[in-house]
């Protein structure tokens, strides 16, 4: 008699989901993630509150796709793939983090329908690949390039910044922030390194009180009795302990036969400290900035020498300061002749809100600048920083890759149109997959208009008609809730961002669609602890 029990291959506790179930669980997970961030898309997108459950119970209010997905715990493997593509999009180009997830989700929604009609995943993938290539060609052919004309290119950059900011918290002051971010990026002169742009957040005032300041701000105070203003500064930047001028009696055991011996030890410590300060002064610096604490005695020695000493500058501040002033960070001071000192024209105290900060003007790296953000609450400041970061990232990408395309759903409609035309010429089941790809692309403008409370089916059918006629600059005018010419409205997006969205979303959707088996490994058994016995 043969037993009908299934053979147990995996170790106890491991789970396996096969073919249909595995695919269904992938689709459901990915679609759920897409639906979660879908409502944040576009200029009328909504925000989410993310509350961390822990000791801190921090609250974030954001509509940045990558931030939302990074903060939520996801257990479904397919959903994790989508979280990863939004992270990659964020690192790679800085914006389009929501679009990429929503497009991948819509592709999988289409795939679910096709699979239920008994079309094999590999056929769908073959059709999608043809569609992706065609969409990319259409997008590239449509892109404009004003890289050689500085006036037009600046206009493009302002438009891109305005478009990026219009879906963020900064939207009510988008003109001001668009100017501000373009000015900051243009200072970089194409180096594309955002390290030179520092963002300082200060509570108080409103968002409209934010401004761009050339040079570098350090959120620190000057030591007692030291000069408050220094011209032609030579800055020695250090990471070294300057807190050994007193004996730390607590926790140390010293046996002495009279109290005067303690004074001798203290004197020896003081001498060591004095020697160190003299070694530092030999470098000919008039500003000393230290990553660590500076105690009263060395502070007094610096004051006597007329040197401005700043203690406990946060590490990122010190690193950026070294980069911007052209200095190095030192922890030993034995070779003053080879030391690289940072330089700047003027260091002075300025007041923002209720705080005093140090301003370094005329730094060696001319492109350095600081954006001071003001706002009513910490959450607003954090979200403003994220929004500005997105805008700055997109602009630096555009300075490198100067092509631009139009926004408002026009690029997606254009790609969908090209894919449909190709599908009409393609025999076989791939054509069905290509049509589904076009439908997924069209969902992006549909969702954007839904988020504004407009009638998406009406708008998308109108857009389809004008795109079929070849008016490819038409998209959705979100102010009026009707279709309009994006070229006239100046709604421009970076070609790089759009291309990345297309490629990443189709690759991720394809990867999830290939899955036909999910195996969850057995949890590791805890070893019995012998101390329990």
Question: Could you describe the 3D structure shown?
Answer:
The strands form six sheets. Strands 7, 8, 9, 10, 11, 12 and 13 form a seven-stranded mixed sheet that branches. This protein has a three-stranded antiparallel sheet with strand order 4-15-18. Helices cover about 50% and strands about 15% of the residues. The longest helix is centred in the middle third of the chain and has 23 residues, at about 260-280. The chain has three domains: about 15-145 and about 405-520, GroEL-like equatorial domain (GROEL, domain 1); about 145-215 and about 375-400, GROEL, domain 2, CATH 3.30.260; about 215-365, GroEL (3-Layer(bba) Sandwich), CATH 3.50.7.10. The mean pLDDT is about 85. Helix 1 (about 20-40) crosses helix 3 (about 75-90), helix 6 crosses helix 7 (about 175-185) and helix 13 (about 430-450) crosses helix 14 (about 455-470). With about 525 residues, it is α+β, with helices and mostly antiparallel strands.
User: Could you tell me how far the N terminus lies from the C terminus, measured between alpha carbons in angstroms?
Assistant: 46 Å
Q: Nearest-angstrom radius of gyration?
A: 30 Å
Share of helix, binned? 40-55%
Q: CATH superfamily assignment of the largest domain?
A: GroEL-like equatorial domain
Number of domains: 3
Parts with pLDDT < 50 across at least 5 consecutive residues:
none
**pLDDT averaged residue by residue:** 86
The CATH topology name of the largest domain reads: GROEL, domain 1
Tally of helical runs: 16
Number of separate strands: 19
* SS-derived structural category: alpha+beta
What is the annotated CATH architecture of the largest domain? Orthogonal Bundle
Shape: globular
Strand proportion, as a percent range, falls in 15-25%
What's the story with the biggest beta sheet?
7 strands, mixed
CATH class descriptor of the largest domain: Mainly Alpha
């Amino acid at each position: 008699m043969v037993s009908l029990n299934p053979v147990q291959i995996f170790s106890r506790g491991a789970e396996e989901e096969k073919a249909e179930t595995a695919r269904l669980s992938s689709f459901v997970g990915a679609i759920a993630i897409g639906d979660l961030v879908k409502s944040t898309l576009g200029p009328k997108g909504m925000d989410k509150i993310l509350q961390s459950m822990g000791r801190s119970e921090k609250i974030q209010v954001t509509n940045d796709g990558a931030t939302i997905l990074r903060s939520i715990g996801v257990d479904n493997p397919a959903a994790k793939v989508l979280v990863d593509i939004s992270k990659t999009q964020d690192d790679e180009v800085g914006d389009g983090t929501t679009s990429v997830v929503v497009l991948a989700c819509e592709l999988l929604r289409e795939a679910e329908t096709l699979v239920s009609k008994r079309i094999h995943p590999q056929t769908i993938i073959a059709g999608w690949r043809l569609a992706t290539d065609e969409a990319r060609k259409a997008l590239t052919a449509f892109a404009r390039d004003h890289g050689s004309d500085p006036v037009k290119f600046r206009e493009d950059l302002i438009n891109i910044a305005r478009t990026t900011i219009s879906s963020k918290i900064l939207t009510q002051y988008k003109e001001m922030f668009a100017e501000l971010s373009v000015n900051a990026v243009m200072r970089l002169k194409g180096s594309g390194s955002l390290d030179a742009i520092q963002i300082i957040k200060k509570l108080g005032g409103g968002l409209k009180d934010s401004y761009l300041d050339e040079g570098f701000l350090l959120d620190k105070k000057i030591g007692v009795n030291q000069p408050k203003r220094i011209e032609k500064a030579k800055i020695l930047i250090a990471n070294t302990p300057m807190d050994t001028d007193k004996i730390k009696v607590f926790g140390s055991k010293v046996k002495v036969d009279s109290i005067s011996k303690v004074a001798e030890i203290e004197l020896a410590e003081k001498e060591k400290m004095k020697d160190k300060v003299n070694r530092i002064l030999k470098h000919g610096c008039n500003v000393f900035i230290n990553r660590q604490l500076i105690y009263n005695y060395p502070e007094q020695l610096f004051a006597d020498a007329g040197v401005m000493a700043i203690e406990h500058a946060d590490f990122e501040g010190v690193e950026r300061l070294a980069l911007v002033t052209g200095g190095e960070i030192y922890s030993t001071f034995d070779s003053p002749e080879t030391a690289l000192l940072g330089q700047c024209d003027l260091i002075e105290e300025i007041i923002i809100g209720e705080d005093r900060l140090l301003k370094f003007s005329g730094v060696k790296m001319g492109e350095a600048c600081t954006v001071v953000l003001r706002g009513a609450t910490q959450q607003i400041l954090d979200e403003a920083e994220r929004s500005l970061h997105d805008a700055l990232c997109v602009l630096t990408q555009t300075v490198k890759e100067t092509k631009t395309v139009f926004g408002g759903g026009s690029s997606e409609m254009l790609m969908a149109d090209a894919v449909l035309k190709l599908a009409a010429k393609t025999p076989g089941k791939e054509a069905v997959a290509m049509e589904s790809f076009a439908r997924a692309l069209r969902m992006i403008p549909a969702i954007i208009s839904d988020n504004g409370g407009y009638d998406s089916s009406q708008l998308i059918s109108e857009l389809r008609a004008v795109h079929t006629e070849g008016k490819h600059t038409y998209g959705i005018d979100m102010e009026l809730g009707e279709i309009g010419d994006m070229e006239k409205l100046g709604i421009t997006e970076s070609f790089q961002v759009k291309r990345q969205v297309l490629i990443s979303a189709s690759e991720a959707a394809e990867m999830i669609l290939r899955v036909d088996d999910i195996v969850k490994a057995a949890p590791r058994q805890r070893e019995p602890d012998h101390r329990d016995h």
